[in-house]
Amino acid sequence: MAFLGGRDLRLFLNNKIISDYQETRIKQAAYELSLGEEVYRTDAIDGKVEVLNDKNRTVTINPGQFTLLMTKETVTIPSDKLAFISIKAKPKLKGLVNVSGFHVDPGFSGKLLFSVYNAGPSTITLRHDEPYFLIWFAELKQNLLSNDLYNNSGNNHQDQKGIPSEYIDALKSGELASPSALLKKIKDVEKIKINNEYLLKLFIGIAVTIGLKIMWDSNAEQKGYEMRVLEERTLKNLYEQIDSIKSNSISLGNIDSIIRESKQTPNGIK
User: What does pTM read for this prediction?
Assistant: First the structure.
């Protein structure tokens, strides 16, 4: 298997292998493919395919999110060729990773669909009609038979012009969280935990304070009650003593009166 390059690549691509062919797009032994009109982002608000045009020229891929990208060009692979595809170095260095296939089978014809993932820490912005993809062509030793070509029934990407709905539905099935988003959620949970611990300690402190206050008030009330009982007892004893003194005073007065009368009457007889 030998890769085409230089003059051989130019002659090969002149045979309507790639639509909108431009010789200036040949870079070393590869050809640059540009971003087409249709893109789909997993975190799109409406969950629909976005259409890029003169008014909406860019797509922003957030960290940790998948995006489906369709090429502008249609590629046709002859029966004696095999193609290899990749993303250019610049978006790769920003963290954009191609997670779809890396080759195009003999017999395929249609626009190429790239499934990419932003593994970087920042958003990546791509512009419509800008070259972000590369394709290389390798020559097979012999042509494949018609039964071995990609154009047989059951090959879903043949004559592909737009993003298939089955891939959109698959990416809609669940929420995708980037590492940074997960870290943020973890920090939020830890923050809530710390706040809850602070509130718990605060409530315990308030409860202890209230408990001590109740105990203090209860003890004070008990002491007050005991003091009141003691005062009442003291007053009662005092009143009893006063009554006793009064009673004794009356008795002494009677005795004095009898003594005085006996002195006035001889022999104690009136």
Answer: 0.66
